[in-house]
UniProtKB/TrEMBL annotation:
<dbReference type="InterPro" id="IPR011990">
    <property type="entry name" value="TPR-like_helical_dom_sf"/>
</dbReference>
<feature type="compositionally biased region" description="Basic and acidic residues">
    <location>
        <begin position="623"/>
        <end position="658"/>
    </location>
</feature>
<protein>
    <recommendedName>
        <fullName>NMDA receptor-regulated protein 1-domain-containing protein</fullName>
    </recommendedName>
</protein>
<dbReference type="InterPro" id="IPR019734">
    <property type="entry name" value="TPR_rpt"/>
</dbReference>
<feature type="repeat" description="TPR">
    <location>
        <begin position="76"/>
        <end position="109"/>
    </location>
</feature>
<dbReference type="InterPro" id="IPR021183">
    <property type="entry name" value="NatA_aux_su"/>
</dbReference>
<keyword id="KW-0677">Repeat</keyword>
<feature type="compositionally biased region" description="Basic residues">
    <location>
        <begin position="610"/>
        <end position="622"/>
    </location>
</feature>
<dbReference type="Pfam" id="PF12569">
    <property type="entry name" value="NatA_aux_su"/>
</dbReference>
<dbReference type="Pfam" id="PF07719">
    <property type="entry name" value="TPR_2"/>
</dbReference>
<dbReference type="Pfam" id="PF13174">
    <property type="entry name" value="TPR_6"/>
</dbReference>
<feature type="region of interest" description="Disordered">
    <location>
        <begin position="605"/>
        <end position="658"/>
    </location>
</feature>
<dbReference type="GO" id="GO:0031415">
    <property type="term" value="C:NatA complex"/>
</dbReference>
<dbReference type="InterPro" id="IPR013105">
    <property type="entry name" value="TPR_2"/>
</dbReference>
<keyword id="KW-0802">TPR repeat</keyword>
Amino acid sequence: MRELPSKESALFKQILKYYEFKQYKKGLKATEQILKKYPEHGETLAMKGLFLNHMDKKDDAREFVRKGLKSDLKSHICWHVYGLLHRSDKNYGEALKCYTQALKIDKDNMQILQDYSLLQIQMRNYEAFNESRHHLLQLRPNNQRYWIGLAISYHLLGNYETAEKVLKTYEDTLKPGQPNYEHSEMLLYHNLIIDESGNTEAALEHLDSIKSNVCDRRIWKEKRAQFLLKLHRLQDAEAAYEELINDNPDCYSYYEGLQIAKGINTSMNNYLNVEDNSLDDLTPECEEKIIALYKDLAQKYPKSNAIKLFPLLYTTGDNFKMFADEYIQAALRKGVPSLFVNLKKLYNDPQKEDIIEQLVEGYLECLKNNGTFTQSKSDDDVKEPPTAYLWTLYLLSQHYDNKRDTTKALKLIDEAIEHTPTLVELYMTKGRILKHGGNHNEATKVMNEARELDLQDRFINSKCSKYMLRNDQIEEAEQKIGLFTRGDAPDPLTDLADMQCMWFVLEEGESYIRQKKWSKALKRFHQIEKHFADITDDQFDFHTYCLRKVTLRAYLSMLRLEDQLRSHPYYFRAAQSAIKIYIGLYDNPNTGTISEESEDYANMTEGEKKKLKNKAKKAALKKQKEDEERKEKAKEDVKRKVDKPQDDDPDGEKLLKTEDPLGEAFKFLLPLQELSPKRIETHLLGFEIYLRKSIII
């Protein structure tokens, strides 16, 4: 039976409203009322399944939706619901098929068309997305979102001219009024389309024409300065960048633009597409221009750190020494912990590195002898504060650590710790030096000392946890990181997984590899893969949100970021390690059944066998104790009504026992081949897999 009586028909319309307003329990109760009288009504069965799906009863939901579809194959509602069910399971391909079938029955259904277009943009099917947006606009030409959506579809297809025409047509229908952020964002997006089409002159003209309607004044000024620079209107660009610097004297990109506008040939010619990033062609005349420019700017903006640092990038020899001397002394006098981080970018030039070393060594000697940065000429010279000596030791220890002179770096940092034994940064630096020297055990101990100096510092706690993982102290690391996780979480790892804290999971997985605990390592790397998959799925809601809020430039940036998501270093490291494990499983299928201990039992002496048995017994007792603690924890969670997601493979044993290790490795390899083709590791891993698959390319 397809048609319901008037009473039940009205109730069914109410069911649709319950779903729209997310009142799933009321909707479920209403479906049961109809099904008591008409148990074979397909659309009601499908809606009941949809409500059950949102109440996390997946199996029952599938049963009811399929039953409903079977009862009424010609209902667009049943097909739409079946598509929604597939979409919730991230099965986008099947969902698209269902929506296509629904549209064959009701081709002008707005809700189905909207959901259809969302799936198309999610799967980056731009041509089909463009067709759907055309259809939506034809049905509702007065809706702003459909005009913008159509423009975006043309933009993504690279058809800039048509995209601009669509936006221009819509803008002409708007009545002039007070500037508002939504209209402003749409105009700036329009300007972005013109810019990406390559017509910079037209983009500048359009930008000037929309000035009064743009609310984001900073971005308007930045775009205008960039366009002027691209068009080689250097005098106007110079004035534009001077205005930007006046607004924000600490923005590095503004100074780069100003230098180019003034005709100063430097390595930062980004806007003019100069590929040579060396300073070899920096002439003495050009260097003098830079010095004069920044001396003038320093008088206008004496508090700007960028102005003090920029001359160090573009000067050489004695000029560099003069600016470096002034910059480093001021920072040491003030006690700036990040001084080495600022100077490190200069170390690409060995000459500058040597000059910095000579200067700081000289400071240390003079401070030790007479309390000043230079050789004192009279007793009346002003002495530097006692902390200047401490920060000089700190800077010099980092300098020698960067040169991997571990002995000298440790000597200096120990002297600094003896001078001020309560400064956290000193212990952190000592731990880093020890780590670079290969002594992970001592590095972990020192980093823990640093943590104990400030138990409320999340950063140092995280650093300590990372060092423990690299020293294969997994239990201690989980305990330390758990100090800053949610108190009501079932365990620290669950909370870290909820927060998508990938660095901890990645380090833990690599630690398990070193311990040859392959199953647990695979579990961690698959968790990271799931995090990236979740991030990809999370963009789904933004397809409608960004059109509604008209955050179009941010939306476009998000789409482009998502397209390159798995080029992230975290994914590359996880994929690389997982592929190596799967290749190892293919080469040695018994790896999954081998004990975590790697000893060759048959070749052991009786004493070694006895030790191994004792070790296994202790491990079993420890595991039993952990299981008991876990059960107690679970009981406490039930008392506190904590919903802990059930994991049927917590230790990754099922992952280790896969029947197709090369197939699993290939899943990790594909994103690397697509997004990281310039890395040699990608091709080496691919070679290892294809070699075993006996594929000739």
